[in-house]
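Hi team,

Filling in the usual template for the complex we talked about on Friday. All components are listed, including any nucleic acid strands or ligand strings, so the model treats them as one assembly.

SUBMITTER: L.P.
PURPOSE: interface mapping
COMPONENTS: two
RESIDUES: 227
SEQUENCES:
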Amino acid sequence: EIVLTQSPGTLSLSPGERATLSCRASQSVNAQYYAWYQQKPGQAPRLLIYGASTRAPGIPERFSGSGFGTDYTLTISRLEPEDSAVYYCQQYGSSSWTFGQGTKVEIK
Amino acid sequence: EVQLVQSGAEVRKPGESLRISCEGSGYSFTNYWIAWVRQMPGKGLEWVGIINPADSETRYSPSFQGQVTISVDKSLSTAYLQWRSLKASDTAIYYCATRPNFYYYLDVWGKGTTVIVSS
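RESULT (copied from the run log):
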């Protein structure tokens, strides 16, 4: 099973700052099978990015994804107060899906 | 509008059985796989398994294989997650979500079903 490790565990930034979230896989992953989700307290997760870099419908342009192989990144270019949430990466490989443990983004 | 409507919260005792449901609407039910995802209290997301409503092909996470059963009733556009004998460690929120054919992400999510197992 492929293990995804996200860093940092918590990111505390001010509105307007840039957030960079990392997700490292224990072995190489096909970028087409890589996604990012946002989860706010008391809500279901929401798809942000799929195929490592394609924004899902309705997702603001400030969210972008990149990466290949074992290292993937979610960038929020200018943080808004409503971006306060936990962000999860996810991959599919070897007939199994796995999620990272999550990065909490706090807005100061 | 594509929607997944999940059944309500459940409270059970250890050893009891349970089946929770996820009804799809606003789309052709057999065109999208349905996945189940667990979130234990205060924890992250874990993939439980996935089913293709078109032919009931099912795959399970190794961590959940033999512990739960995923099934579907096409006539009701509904997927199910079932336990024969619940444990306290099954206490969690369970989400269902759709996976478009030929893609490997979950795009529409239900609101979740809270399952509490306590004596």
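MY TAKE: The interface with chain A takes residues 35, 37, 44-47, 50, 59, 61-62, 95, 97, 103-107, 109-112 of chain B (CB under 8 Å). The first strand of chain B starts at residue 3 and ends at 6.

Thanks, L.
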